[in-house]
Amino acid sequence: MNGIEADTFGLRINQTICFSDDKNKPHQVTTNRQLKLVRDFAPQLKQLLKPDEEILLTVRASSPMSWFEQLTTGWMIYYLKRCVLIFTNKRILHFPTRMNFAPKASVAQILYGDIAEAKVGAFFGRVLNLKYRTGKKESFNYVESPELKKLNALLPTLPKDAHPSEVSERHHLCPRCQARLLTGKFSCSNCQLKFKDGERAIKLSILYPGGGYFYTGHPFLGIGDAIVESILLIWLIIGVVDFFTGDGGPEGWASVLIPGVALIIEKAETIFHAKHYVNEYVPAENFAPAAIS
Questions:
Q1: If you write DSSP's letter for every residue of 125-168 in order, what string do you get?
Q2: What is the pLDDT of residues 112-159, one digit of tens each?
Q3: Which of 34, 119, 161, 165 has the fewest CB within 10 Å, making it most exposed?
Q4: Which segments within the chain are labelled E, that is strand?
Q5: Rounded Cα–Cα distance for residues 29 and 50 (Å)
Q6: Residues 163, 215: one domain?
Q7: Residue closest to 120 by CA, chosen among 54, 57, 33, 74
């Protein structure tokens, strides 16, 4: 123990590691910050952590993302993909979060036995780069600075001979029963909890302006998309009316083609994003772990 008194919300935390600085010296500011970071996830952690599992470090970052997501969303993607990583003595727990780092009732895990290489580097040194035994690589961007040095010091001490999982890379767990979720299957095979799925995301993206974003829990993107789609739709309707009434002149086809193509592209982009967001496996029904006792 490091001598610092703290309420750990009933969680098993290795206080010698978690509440110290990167030189393993007890640090009250670090203690306060770590407790603040972990508090909102305590209800889920009480269900997830194994009896002999303890928390070593909690880190805020951004979840892995594709280059196309970055290209089509811009800088905002780093806020939309925010997450919290909790390092334990057995694995890394990955919690996708809302823009304010509030939990989404979604969780994935990375067993240390699945990691072939882990290091902090690139992009100004604020990225956690992981290479799995399958050869797949993932990067967690924008690791927050207060934990950066501690994370860099912690990585070499993590178990290197741990047993791998069946998939040997990051995979999602059911937030209700902790069973491994199958890729592309949006219901838990163990407890039947249903998750927001790609088929419904596509349907809502096509039928309603911004529908896919609202469905996946991204209201700001939904509002922006709804405005753009509505403008394009009105422009298209006016163009069609002008084209058939002859008011658009000899170039009237352009007033139909331009907004029509733009609307298709906007819909396709919404569908692409919505299909990726459902891969966070957020429950379709209201679901919340028990409150902190």
A1: G--EEEEETTS-EEEEB---HHHHHHHHHHGGGS-SSPPP-SSS
A2: 999 999 999 866 668 999 999 999 999 999 999 899 999 999 999 998
A3: 161
A4: 55-62, 82-88, 91-96, 107-111, 115-120, 128-132, 137-140, 171-173
A5: 28
A6: no
A7: 57
Examine the domain organization and report whether 32 and 165 are in the same domain.
yes
Cα dihedral 76, 78, 81, 86 sign: negative
Could you tell me if 18 and 80 are in contact, meaning their C-beta atoms sit under 8 angstroms apart? no
Domain range spanning residue 205? Answer: 200-279
Please identify which residue in the block is written with the tokens 């599992």. 53
Give 38-69 pLDDT, tens digit per residue.
999 999 999 999 999 999 999 999 999 988 88
SS (H, E, C) 254-279: HHHHHHHHHHHHHHHHHHHHHHHHHH
Average pLDDT over residues 220-246: 88
**Crossing angle of helices 219-245/254-277, nearest 10°?**
160
Q: Which amino acid is at 196?
A: K
Query: What does the alpha-carbon distance between residue 25 and residue 90 come to, in Å, rounded to a whole number?
Result: 23
| One domain, residues 165 and 113 | yes
pTM of the model: 0.88
